[in-house]
Amino acid sequence: MRELTIGKNDAGQRLDRFVAKALPLLPPALAQKYIRLKRVKVNGKGSKKDVRLLAGDVVQLYINDEFFDQPTEANAFLTLFKPQLDILYEDENLMLLNKRPGLVVHADETEKVNTLINHVQAYLYQKKEWNPRGENSFTPALCNRIDRNTGGIVIAAKNAQALRVINDKIRNREIRKLYLCITVGRMQPSQGKLECFLLKDEAKKQVFVYHRPVSGGRSAVTLYRTLETRGELSLVEAELLTGRTHQIRASFADAGHPLLGDGKYGDGAVNRRYHETRQALYSYRLAFDFPTDAGPLNYLRGKAFSVSDVAFKNKYFP
Fold it and tell me: Which numeric CATH code is attached to 87-171?
C-alpha cells in the first residue's frame, strides 16, 4: 500500500483522473475496478470515482508496486501485467493453453483486463517474441473460443502464418475437438449423433434449437458417447463436427439431458442439489488430424493433446 497526499496543484481533480495521472501504467479499466473494490481509498474510506479531491486529502492505494513505475519504451505496453497461463504445449508458431473456467477469452462488457488474450500477449511481449512496435498489423491471436464458464484447450497463434493455417484447418474440420461433460440422466442410445439447427438471440445471449431449417439458423452436429453413469449423472464425451455458440449445452438440453451446473439451459433444481453453478463442460482433447497439407505446421500432423485433470470428472467420476 502507498499513500499520496493531495497538494494544491492536485486539488479539485476527480479521484479516477488523479489515479490515472499518478499511475500511468495502470490500465484505465483496472483503475476503475480497483476504485469500485475500495482498493483506492480517500482518508481511509472507499470513495466514488467522481469525488473531488481536496488539498490535504490522503489517497491510499492498495495496488501492486510495479504500477507506480513511470512508463518507458521498454515497459509502456504490458511489461508489468503478470501473465498466468497453463501451457500444455508451445513452439515457435503456437501455444496450446488450458483455460480455466471463469476466465473470458476476449474482453466483454464484464471484463476488460483479465482476459486470456491479454495474458497471452503480455507473456509473448515479456519473452521478447512479439514487439507490437515492430509489427505493421499482426497481433498474437486466439484461434478458437470457449465460453467463460467452460474450461479447456485454446489455440493461440504466435504469427500470421500459423493463424491462417489453424483457422483454415478449423474451418475445414481438420482439427478434432473433444469435450467431457456431465449430463443429467442417461443418453438413449448411449452413443450417437445430435443434429439440429441453432438460432442465436444476441440480446438474450442464448441459442434456440430447431429440428428444421429456419431463417438465420445454423446446422449443428455433435457426436457423443457415454463413458460412465453413476446414479442420475452420466460422464459423456462429445465431439463437435460444427462449432456453434453453446452447441453442446443447447443440444443436450434439447435431448432431455442438460449439463450439470448449466444455469442457462440446465435444470435449476438439480444444479442446486449438487451446488453447481458452472456447466460441467471441458474441452479436454485436441487432435491435429490434417488430411491435407498444413504448410509450416505439417509437423503437428497426427499429434493430439489432452487435459487429464478435469475437476468435475475427478469429483463425480474419480
Answer: 3.30.2350.10
